[in-house]
Every structure is written in structure tokens, then in C-alpha cells.
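>> Question from a student workshop board

For tomorrow's exercise we were told to take the sequence and the ligand below, predict the bound structure, and bring the output to class. My setup keeps failing. Could a helper post the expected result so I can at least see what it should look like? The ligand is protoporphyrin IX containing FE.
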Amino acid sequence: MPMPNDVQLVDAPIAPNYDTVYLIEDLIAVNNSASVCPAMCERDDRRSAAIAEEAAKPLSGFAPVMAYNNAKDILRSSAIRQGMEGGDYFGDKDPGRIPVIFLDGEVHRKRRGQIARYFTPKAINDRHRLVMERTTGVLMDQLRRSGSGQLDVMSLRLASDVAAEIVGLTASDASAMSGRLRKLFRSSSRSKRPGLRGKLGKAENILRTLYFHRRDVVPAIRHRQQHDMDDVISYLVREGFSDQEVLVECMTYATAGMITTREFIVMVAWQLLESDELRGIFLEGNETVQLGILDEILRIDPVAGYVYRRAEEDMETEDGKVVKAGDQFRIDIRTANLDEAVTGECPFAIDAERSKRQRMPSSWLSFGDGPHRCPGAQVAMQETRVFIDALLRIPGIRLAKPPRLGWLEDINGYELHGAMVECDRG
Ligand code: HEM
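>> Workshop helper replied:
Here is what the output should look like for this input. Compare the format with yours to find the bug.
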């Protein structure tokens, strides 16, 4: 197993102590045990490991947490707070008006309670599934007519339509909005470059954000001010959020819900189009089998590579390790999901039976855990399943060009760009 670059804990500004060093020992144990697997364990099905190792730039000052159970304990503890970058910006703001991902404690619990209704199995079946099927149908018709399509453009259109319905960004043309968001996300990546190119990227990013605000967010707000609806923007309007505060919340959903799903769909398509065996199991399987395969792909190639946390109070993990108030952690989802203590043998191989056999939650840590666990997890899994099932059934479907891999700091994860599929024209 390649060693992740984050084992350089000694360089972290916070003093390493015995409470954090044990996390490294756990990683070493994981690495050693990987070599004892028979036949299947020769396999390494991961597609994003190399780019993560090469390009990920985790924040310094956060001790890496790599063992699954320690990660879970930290994420679930009431002594732990969100530690992601950008939170300081909201330090002096009214907590009632801060995006959900930056909230903690009671105010976070309340906000999650308020948005939970958009993510229930009933909401997925009665509302979101219609959008998933409608947009997938449109995309597959276009693909069949033209004979080729760019996967990340198609997957963003789906992810954008589904999230837009949940958020309430439905007062502008869906296809045009997806295009605007695509350019906006690209400019956000460019803004992270060094030097002049980064400065130009930042300027472009500001302009594209303003454009998205004017063309998509403001019309949605004005519509909700006249007609209260059942979506996130309607709720924010009722709560008296300003236009700018609504924009910030929309950007949270765009990043957390659209970019992530775009990448995941392309990863699944890439894996299944290149493996006759896995594709066969997927196509012959029922919904449970299909979701099992998606779970495994997301386990070995989690879209979000890590999340950050800090301890507000002292706490003890289940195995008796002490965490001190002020300690800061980077939960390394990529490594924790490969922890052989919980995955069982052959952690790098896709094995659709694994979570059932190991009695583990299906998505492992790929959607986080604890109070901030992704509310959109089931939405993302279902829309991916619906899209991939339809794609793989298109006559003559094949991967004409695999994706180029990149790294997106916005989601601390991989980006898969430019993959092309071709099919028989119909
Ligand atoms: C494959 C797709 C997705 C992945 C891998 C993903 C991953 C994650 C992860 C790891 C977190 C936890 C962040 C943390 O603990 O700091 C999270 C939070 C969140 N996700 Fe997702 N997500 C996906 C899809 C979605 C979708 C479809 C939506 C909504 C339409 C969504 C909305 C959110 C929101 C609002 C949060 C913040 C929740 C909170 O802080 O309480 N995500 N996501």
C-alpha cells in the first residue's frame, strides 16, 4: 500500500503526543497486514490512490486519524467540533444564518432537523426519484442520438438537477445552470493555483459566483418570496436569510452535493465499463446488489478524502485513548476505509458482499459519520444507481476515453475529467 503523504505528523505544528502517535501505529499495522492476503488480495482496484498521494495537500496542524474505529469515535463524540477550513469567516456571524456544515451543537442539531425532511426515503421515492429518472432519460436520449458523450458533463447535469430540486434552484433553465456551475467549479480550482494564474482564477471565480447568483439564486429567492415551497431556499426565506446568505448556503450544497456526486458517478462508470465481470454482476443484480457494488467503489475511492475536526473538551475513544481539548484531527477517510481490522481480508478489492459480511455500515466513512454525516448519502447513491443502470444498458456502450485525474481542494478529493463514452446510434 502506498504510504499517504500525511504520515508526516512530526511536521505538524501541534506537538505530537502519545494520544496521537498511536494513530500512526495503527496505520502501520494496517499496512503490514495488507501483505498476507491470498489471490484476491493481489488486486488493487483503487483508481484514485496515486493522484491522492501525489496531489492532496491536507492542512497542516491536524493529526491524521487513520484507524476506522478511532475515526468513528472522534466523528461521533459530542466533545468534537467541525474543523473545516473557512469556519473562521463565520466566527462573529449569527449562528442561525451560517451554512449547516459550519454549525455545531444544538443549533446544528436543529438545522439538521429542519432539512431532514428533504432527504427521507419517502422524499427520495416520491420526489427526487422522478427528477433522477427524468434527467437520466434526457441524457440517455441525447447520448443515443449523438453516439457519444462526456461523462462528467452528463453526471454534473444529473447531480445539479437533483440537488437543485432539493435546494429550490428551479427558477432558471436547468441545463444552462448546470453549464454555469461547471464553469464556476472550474474557476474555483484555478483560483487555488500559485502566482498570477491563481489571481486570475480568483477574479474569474468571483465573477462566475456573481453570475450564478444573479441568474439562478436571485430568481429562485424572488419566486419563493411569492410562493412558499417545500425546499431549502423556501425555508431560508422564511427564516429571513439575506440574498447573500442564501447564496452561501447554495454554494455549500453545490460543493457538498453536486461536485461530489459528479465525480462519484464518473468513477463508477469508469470501473464498470472497464470490468466485464463487475458490469455483469451489476446488470444482473437487484437494487441491493447494485448498491453493494457502489458502496465498495466508494469505500476504496471515497470522493472526499478527509474531513477536519477539533476537540472542544477532553474525551476518551472506545479503546481508551485520550484526546485533549484543543487537539485537531484530520480524519483520513481514504485510509480508514481500508483498515483491515474492519474491512476483513483484501481491503483494496471491490467485494460487493463485504459490508454485509463484516456487519459494517454500507458507506463506511465515505459520507462522514456523527452529527455532520452527509444528509444526501441516499440521494447520491440512488441517483448514481439510476444513471449507471441506464448507461450500461445502452446498446454498444463503451468507454472511448478514460478520465484524466486531478485533485479538487474544494472537496479534498479527486476529480475525473474528460472521460468519453460512445454507443451505437439510435
Ligand atoms: C457521492 C456523493 C457525496 C459524497 C461523497 C458526500 C460526502 C459528504 C461528506 C464526507 C460529508 C461530511 C462533511 C464533514 O463531516 O465535515 C458531507 C456533508 C454534507 N453533504 Fe454530502 N456527499 C455527497 C452527496 C451529497 C448530496 C447529493 C447532497 C445534497 C443534495 C449533500 C449535502 C451535504 C450537506 C448539506 C452536508 C453538510 C452536513 C452537515 O454538516 O451537517 N451531499 N457530504
